[in-house]
Specification:
By secondary structure, this protein is an alpha+beta fold. The protein folds into four domains: 5-105, no CATH class; 125-223 and 635-703, 3-Layer(aba) Sandwich (Rossmann fold); 253-457, no CATH class; 502-594, no CATH class. Helix content is 56%, strand content 14%. The chain has 25 helices and 19 strands. The strands form four sheets. Strands 1, 2, 3, 4, 5 and 6 form a six-stranded antiparallel beta sheet that branches. A six-stranded mixed beta sheet has the order 12-16-17-9-18-19, sandwiched between helices. β16 (637-640), α21 and β17 form a beta-alpha-beta unit. The protein is elongated and about 130 Å long. The model is unreliable at 1-68 (pLDDT under 50).
Length: 739
């Protein structure tokens, strides 16, 4: 046999079993290491390898490969034991399907798991619970802290319930049973073997994490289901969708969509400014035209050679002033550009690649480029400064002549007296007003010019959101197909796209308050028209109305026909929204009221009959969700009493059988009062809690290979020996089993 191993031969008719115990594991134990430390690696003392070979009928004859003495160490079987003794071996032979694997059957899987949890205070103060990488069953009487243990795991891993009422109960348990500043520490082992030591304090004023900078719910992902949570999920379509999303990295879609929504909020304001500018421009042009007419009338009344000289000088003064303002604006933009370049964060090379020649060369190129930019900007700034000095010199020279001309003009006005003084004062006011109008017009025209640019940018972002939702939907459908295929014909699942229009409907109802339009009309509109299309038609209608189009209502006719609502009601709604709603609130309908998908989950209630979860019994609802939870995957599954509301047959078929098939490639942690869940599923590690009114304790931890734990399991799951014996006899189990 290969390697350093100690062997002990146990004779059986036609079978010789050779125990092979790895010295490395034994040495680790002999050195005083705690047994639980072995759980931090891939090896476990709960797995023992037995090399098995079949003795040849003719030991002296030629032995075929894999038989006789030549077969030692070649053909192997793996027996799952907590310790090597007859009781452990008996347990293996009682349940060989999950306890004994031949060499060709053995599958090695690397998957994430919860290694242990330690609680510093509260009801479970100074308790450490070590979890097996397979099936763990938490047992105990009422009030011993079983559910609390699940809530503490959720707290430490930052994965609270999404249902508000259950989340409030979760927080209440933490407050009363852990206490402020209580600490929970969890060791989470990922699929690569990396251990994340997570410590969280129940701090009312902070998150409670000191060094965790990543999203725990994504890095240390666990499927948690507290008591009654399954029922609530089965009764709510949005919760069902969230449940489906928890089986694949849906958070990435949420984050990317949120980033696009943030960008769109900024673009909304800029585009809305541009749309409002259209109306502002029309009003400003009208005001400018009116003011110019008034000034011309006054010019006629003030007609005199000196007046013409003065007005010409004033126009030149304003022109020179505008040149100076232009150069000031260019200077500010150049300074801003330099600051933006300087504010860009230079990429940092990974410490392991600090001396990489390619990366160092690129860093040198970045420095060279920045120095080049700085030198050119400095040159531009110098040139601008020279030009501004020349412009200022021109201003100073002209200012003296202008002041002289103005003085002559004012003396002329005072000499004329009467209306001349009044007209001059009025004209100066109108000139200032005209200048202010023209400045505002320039700003608004810039906004209008850029509105088309912002509109194109928005459309691009909206297209990206559409694409993300389509990709997200594809993943959901693939996951539903997987659930259906893994359900052994018990489930039918589908994703009905764009079917949840509640957000769009509710927002429209809120916006239309103040009109006499019926909510039923709004519901029909929300059901038949996409938010993006609705807003587009509103804006088209607004544009045609401003341009006095002869058929302004064409865009709204499309909405009316799609929703089968009279056109006059749609026109009334459009006029009200455009007159009374901020444009930004209308624009955000296109993405913040995006129609959501709805899951369609059906459960088999007869041979070929499937019914929606809404119509089946509570037990069937729970069964459907548990089937989905138990499908193969990697993340640990932690469920508080999975047997609740299920009948015994469903418990065996839909929980036990699935756990037995998958617990060698996925970790399960259950609190339970059901013997089928705990015993028939072949629990790898029982965690037994006891408590008084003030404190709970872990009193036993291990498998049923240990007689002491077997007694405790019998006590908590069957009520003890006497009631179990009575049931056993009444079932005539001895005869039935022999049969």
């Amino acid at each position: 046999m290969k390697g350093q191993q100690r062997t002990e031969i146990v004779q059986h008719p036609g079978l010789i079993a050779v125990e092979a115990r790895d010295f490395q594991n034994e040495d680790r134990i002999n050195k005083g290491k705690r047994v639980t430390d072995l759980l931090d690696g891939n090896d476990s003392i709960y797995q023992r390898k037995l090399a098995v070979f079949q003795a040849s009928d003719n030991p002296e004859g030629p032995a075929e490969e894999g038989h006789g003495l030549h077969g030692i160490g070649e053909t192997c079987a793996y027996f799952k034991m907590e310790k090597i003794d007859l009781e452990s071996l008996r347990q293996c032979f009682l349940d060989p399907d999950v306890r004994i694997k031949q060499d060709f059957e053995l599958e090695q899987h690397d998957y994430p798991r919860i290694g242990r949890v330690t609680i510093s205070s509260g009801f479970l103060e100074e308790q450490t619970v070590v979890f097996n990488q397979g099936l763990n069953s938490i047992l105990g009487g009422k009030g011993t802290g079983k559910s609390l243990l699940v809530e503490l795991l959720r707290f430490a891993l930052n994965q609270p319930p999404v249902i508000e009422a259950i989340e409030l109960d979760h927080k209440s348990k933490l407050k009363s049973r852990l206490g402020d500043l209580g600490i929970v520490q969890v060791d989470y082992v990922d699929e690569t073997g990396q251990v994340f030591e997570i410590k969280r304090v129940l701090d009312p004023v902070s998150s409670g994490y000191d060094i965790v900078e990543y999203d725990l719910s994504q890095v240390c992902q666990v499927l948690f289901l507290s008591q009654n949570e399954i029922i609530r999920i089965a009764e709510d379509k949005s919760l069902q969708l969230h449940f489906i999303d928890s089986f694949f990295p849906s958070k990435a879609y949420e984050e990317r969509i949120e980033a696009l929504e943030t960008s769109l909020h900024d673009l909304d304001k800029q585009m809305a400014d541009g749309l409002r500018a259209v109306g502002e421009i029309a009003e400003l042009k009208e005001s400018i035209a009116t003011t110019e007419v008034k000034i011309k009338r006054l010019d006629t009344k003030l007609d005199a050679p000196i007046f013409k000289t003065y007005t010409g000088a004033d126009e030149k003064r304003q022109a020179i002033q505008s040149y100076s303002e232009y150069f000031n604006e260019v200077e500010q933009l150049t300074i801003c550009y330099k600051e933006n370049v300087d504010s860009l964060e230079i990429p940092v090379s990974p410490s392991a690649l600090a001396n990489d020649s390619v990366l160092k060369q690129n860093m040198e190129r970045i420095d060279e480029a920045k120095n080049h930019i700085h030198s050119h900007i400095d040159a531009i700034m110098g040139k601008l400064s020279d030009v501004q000095e020349l412009v200022k010199s021109d201003q100073q020279m002209f200012k003296k002549w202008f002041e002289h001309t103005r003085k002559q003009y004012l003396e002329h006005v005072r000499g004329e007296g009467g209306d001349q003084v009044k007209f001059t004062s009025e004209r100066e006011k109108l000139q200032k007003q005209l200048k202010a109008y023209e400045a505002r017009l320039h700003v608004e025209q810039l906004k209008e010019t850029r509105a088309a640019e912002f509109a194109r940018a928005r459309e691009k972002k909206l297209d990206e959101i559409d694409a993300l939702y389509r990709e997200w939907r594809r993943e959901r459908k693939e996951r539903c197909e997987h659930f259906q295929n893994s359900s052994e014909g018990k489930l039918q699942l589908n994703i009905i796209e764009f079917s949840n229009r509640d957000e769009f409907r509710n927002r429209l109802i809120g916006l239309k308050r103040g009109t006499n339009l019926r909510d039923t009309d709004i519901s029909k509109l929300a059901t038949s028209v996409q938010p993006r299309s609705f807003v587009q038609k509103l804006l088209e209608y607004q544009n045609q109305r401003r341009n006095s189009s002869h058929d302004q209502q064409i865009p709204l006719k499309v909405l009316a026909e799609s929703a089968e609502i009279p056109l006059d009601r749609i026109v009334k709604l459009a006029d009200f929204l455009l007159a009374n709603s901020d444009i930004e609130r209308l624009l955000e309908l296109q993405y913040m009221a995006y129609p959501k998908d709805r899951p369609e989950i059906k459960f088999r209630v007869g041979r070929e009959k499937f019914e929606s979860l809404e119509t089946v019994s509570v037990g069937q609802k729970c069964t459907a969700l548990l089937i989905m939870a138990m499908t193969d995957g990697q993340m640990p599954v932690v469920i508080d009493q999975p047997e609740d509301s299920l009948d015994i047959r469903s418990i065996w078929e839909d929980i036990c059988a699935r756990v037995r098939d998958n617990k060698h490639r996925r970790q399960f942690i259950f609190t339970t009062h059901n013997s089928s869940v705990a015993v028939a599923s072949d629990t790898d590690n029982f965690i037994i809690l006891e408590a008084d009114s003030e404190k709970g304790n872990v009193v036993f931890s291990g498998s049923m290979d240990t007689g002491e734990i077997g007694d405790e399991v019998l006590k908590y799951l069957e009520g003890g020996t006497d009631p179990y014996r009575k049931k056993f006899l009444k079932y005539r189990a001895n005869k039935r089993l022999r049969a």
